[in-house]
Write a structure and sequence with these properties.
The structure is a single chain. The chain contains 5 helices and 9 strands, in the order E-E-E-E-H-E-E-H-E-E-E-H-H-H. It is an alpha+beta fold and 265 residues long. Among the domains are: 7-27 and 85-170, Beta Barrel (Ku70, Chain: A, Domain 2); 189-203 and 212-237 and 246-264, no CATH class. A 7-stranded mixed β-barrel has the order 1-2-6-9-8-7-5. The protein has a two-stranded antiparallel ribbon with strand order 3-4. Helix 3 runs parallel beside helix 5 (248-264). It starts with 6 loop residues before the first strand and ends with a helix.
Length: 265
């Protein structure tokens, strides 16, 4: 069953509007557990309890508060927040076109597919998609969904246009502000050449289906086994413990030999 549209509107491209629908591009496979009472297996309820009197609080009696000092809050009313909501427009407004390699992937958040909303929008949709592909450019845009304004990148992917919501600049931690990163390290030319050779030998085309969530598969197998009433003995996945590299060149040479064996095999 194809995913349903969660937003509809139009891409605003100069004076051209391209009617589109938005559908999610991911389907999370997380395994979710309920909290149970260990003694009788009954579900556990989460309750909202006031820390002052210990009484349960109804939804209608809740308020939003922002802590400005320990134990001191500014109370913000629902109506006050609603007054700040962005105008609920139905357009994805393209602000700029940039080269895709200029965008650090750390800025990307959640991907969606943009789909032509009607037959007459197929040609302008394909025109925008193909023009971006030929130019190697990505569109930076703004749009509003569910009372929240998003920054987004729109790019071609196969026959589709993909919209990815993005973080704003002040939400991204700059790499140069992270402690412990190596900077003034001298790299020997031989070591660098061997490392590049190892990368070349381990290079292949990206095939997403080759990689699986091994932990989720083991949890699903555990659930199925216990549901059948069978006894379960599990062994954790043990990865090889990394050892301290004493001789970097020797480690690279051994890695190249191993990579060559894998390739010939």
């Amino acid at each position: 069953m194809p995913p349903r549209a969660i937003w509809s509107g139009a891409i605003s491209f100069g004076l051209v509007n391209v009617p589109v629908k938005l559908t999610t591009a991911v389907s999370k496979k997380d395994i979710r557990f309920h909290q149970l009472h260990a003694t009788d297996g009954a579900r556990i309820e989460q309750r909202r309890v006031c820390t002052a009197d210990g009484e349960e609080v109804a939804w209608n009696d809740l308020a939003k508060g922002y802590e400005i000092a320990p134990g001191q809050h500014v109370v913000i009313g629902t109506e006050e927040l609603e007054g700040l909501d962005p105008e609920a427009t139905r357009t994805i407004d393209i602000l700029d076109f940039v080269r895709e390699d200029e965008i650090d992937p750390v800025f990307y958040q959640h991907p969606y597919y943009l789909i032509p909303d009607k037959k007459t929008s197929e040609k302008p949709y394909a025109l925008l998609r193909d023009a971006m592909r030929r130019s190697g450019k990505v569109a930076i845009a703004r749009f509003v969904m569910r009372t929240k304004e998003y920054l987004a990148a729109v790019r071609p992917s196969g026959d589709a246009l993909v919209l990815s919501t993005m973080l704003f600049a002040d939400e991204v931690v700059a790499a140069d502000s992270v402690d412990g990163l190596p900077s003034d390290v001298e790299i020997d030319d031989r070591e660098l050449q061997m490392a590049e050779q190892l990368i070349d030998q381990l290079t292949s085309e990206f095939e997403p289906g080759r990689y699986e969530d091994r932990y989720r598969a083991r949890v699903e197998e555990l659930i199925e086994t216990k549901a059948r009433g069978e006894a379960v003995i599990t062994q954790p996945i043990r990865e090889a413990e990394p050892s301290g590299v004493v001789d970097l060149v020797a480690a690279l040479e051994a890695s190249l030999e191993e990579a060559e064996k894998r390739r010939t095999a």
